[in-house]
User: Fold this.
Amino acid sequence: MFFFFGNEQPYDFAGTHTAKDVAKYIIHKCTSENKPISNLQLQKILYYVQAASLKERSCALFTDEIEAWQFGPVVRSVYRAYCGYGAAAIYERKEPEKPFSDEEKNLIDRVVREKMAKKPWDLVNETHARGKPWALVYREGLGKMQVIPKDVIAEYEYTG
Assistant:
């Protein structure tokens, strides 16, 4: 499905992968580089990967919705898959079910590199900034666990 906004650029919000596959790729990459990540970091990186894909490619990378939770944007299915780790690092090397294109890998790798340089709570604060998609939906808890629309993410988020 395509939508048009102020800049008349079409966005394809359907996505071609599952968020779990993107998460597996990210976790595998981080584990292989001996930089394992927590579920909290994973959630923020997923959010920024989706935002970068929407901004740069005009299409969603994954099909799943992102919700506004207390500590920032969350993909519920991925959260449930890894919540057993708590705040601990996730060590896994599972391959995604569907392969990524080189363009998709490059985008994911770049976002992972940029966001892994930050501390987890800095990522939380970054996503909570006034005027950002999470804050627009969460509204001091009124929008808790509500979907952050992809069109809002596409218009307001990710500057690299």
Observations:
- The mean pLDDT is 91.
